[in-house]
Amino acid sequence: MPSTTPTINTRPDDADLPAVPAAPDAQLSRNHLADALSGRPIGQPDVERVANSSHISLIDHVGQPPQLLGRDAELSPERLAALARSGMSVDFTADTWAQIERSASLLRAAHERGTKIYGLTTGFGPLVTFSADECVRMQGTGLISHLGAGFGDLAPSVVVRATLLARAHTIGQGHSGIAPRAARAFLDLINSGLCPAVPAVGSVGASGDLIPLAHVARVLTGEGTVVLQGRRVPAREALQGHGLSPIELSGRDALALVNGTAFMTAYAALALDDAERLIARAEAITGWIFRLLGGRTQALDPRLHTARGHPAQAASAAGIREEALRFGDCDDPSRPLQDVYSLRCAPQFLGACRDQLAHARAIITRELNGINDNPLVCDDGTGDILHGGNFQGQQISFAADAINSAIVQIAVLVERQLDVLLNPELNGNAPLLLAWNPGATSGMAGAQITATALVAEMRHHVGPCAVTSIPTNGRNQDVVSMGTMSARQAFDQSRRLAGVLAICALGAHQLNFLRASGKSPGRTTPAPDWMPRVDGIRQDRALYDDIERISQSFLQPLAG
Questions:
Q1: How far is 393 from 482, CA to CA, in rounded Å?
Q2: Which active-site residues does the annotation give?
Q3: What is the pTM of this model?
Q4: Region label for 47, one of left (φ > 0), alpha (ψ between -120 and 50) or beta (otherwise)
């Protein structure tokens, strides 16, 4: 349905998920198109659809002006995430189109002067010493064909769309030399809502993300595949169904589409967006636990944190304090003067994680708005064609490793807070494992095991990838960044963290429920406003659905 203002769905159980407009002959309902774009079988319930598409929400913005990319259009990680999770159309500004045309003209002029230009007059990679095929069409086709060699599961649809947007924004800087018709076809692909089938594995983050981006470029030529209605469909068929035609790509046009860091940067930006949202949830849940247990809020005093001198620590303390004191003073004088570290030192831990994320944000933002092409067409009056290595993803690799370590540390802290909630010695003498009838029922026992398993998984996947270079490409790529693997790991960790947070929130809710039911001493206190409704546990039940629903809600942006 048309909307008057661009919005992003905020809840995984929103019943109405309008879709990107399809071709008139597509004959898909809007919810079925949402299923198709997420790569799931049609007709899935909304919760399951969103969960399995990595929290993508498809929003219909018919009648709304396109979102602008390219020159004079800053692209932040959160803006990229919002665009990727929506169906908003995009375009370049008139100035951007003019610059793209100028860049292409400068490239043609350099070619006519006899300038050697990588990918136009030469072969690719270690074959740069050989002349290019005289047929420029074959040069482009050959490039993306031999690079269509990815492996394994497909990247989530939200990552693929973010990749398309990030690459378009780079092309829009006007230094790629790409033909305007190829740039237009790329935007048309984005606006069609079609999701190229892109294997997650194949990039070493060296000449950018050659393998995954080639799977995207092949769709433009009609030779790749897209995910539609839960199955892989030949690109040519899908394009025609959306009123689009395959195009031919010259060697330079093909190279402009594949030689960059868009795939790893998309993964990293989405991981960062998730992490920043989840750390805010962690702070609020910590404040809720303070309220439940009567924790000593002196540990949250702003004077204490100002004295340390770390602004992010002070910000985390403020977030915890806001929830802890939402209904006034919560201190229980019967508790020890100092709480355990997972409560008392939460601002120090979470503040340090915020610092990591802030550093990663600066790096990712620069990468999103920079030029990671090779070669680069200069528009400084010289018309020079510069060959270099701006596609190397080392910055993103380090940034993603930082996001990963922050996400894992948040999970470690929250898992310990869960243990506090389940321990009668620390939770105000509530039943062990928050069981309604200990012995006859087991309460949160199974869920705690899952939280422990999640943290173990996260620790296993936290090792830095940025220092794991392996030479490849006939020794041409003799040192590589592994940025894509770093970013993919960070992205995957966010869902695990959401699971740990969901289980901890369930624990806090269950303690409150036991108190309200007279099964545990202590006062009751409301959950944060954004906590989904959940039934208390009397008789033991499977908590999988609750954990999934809560974790997915934590991954969604809050309204406003």
A1: 7
A2: 118
A3: 0.88
A4: alpha
Name the residue type at position 161: R
Report pLDDT digits (tens) over 359-391.
999 999 999 999 999 999 999 999 999 999 999
Amino acid at 497: L
Spell out the domains of the chain, with CATH numbers in brackets.
67-260 (1.10.275.10), 267-370+384-555 (1.20.200.10)
Q: Is the peptide bond before 557 cis (omega within 30 degrees of 0)?
A: no
Give the up-direction half-sphere exposure of residue 138: CA atoms within 13 A in the CB hemisphere: 7
What Å distances lie between residue 244 and 178, 186, 193, 241, CA to CA?
A: 19, 11, 12, 7
pLDDT for residue 526: 95
Continuous segment of H or E residues that includes residue 195:
strand 195-196
- How far is Cα 278 from Cα 495, in angstroms, rounded to an integer? 10
Beta strands 231-234 and 225-228, pairing class: antiparallel
pLDDT digits (tens, 9 = 90+) for 493-536: 999 999 999 999 999 999 999 999 999 999 999 999 999 999 99
Q: Which residues contact 350 (CB under 8 A, 6 or more apart)?
A: 279, 282, 283, 286, 313, 316, 319, 320, 410, 413
Is the pLDDT at 33 greater than 70? The verdict is no
Is the per-residue pLDDT at 354 higher than 70? yes
CA distance 146 to 151: 13
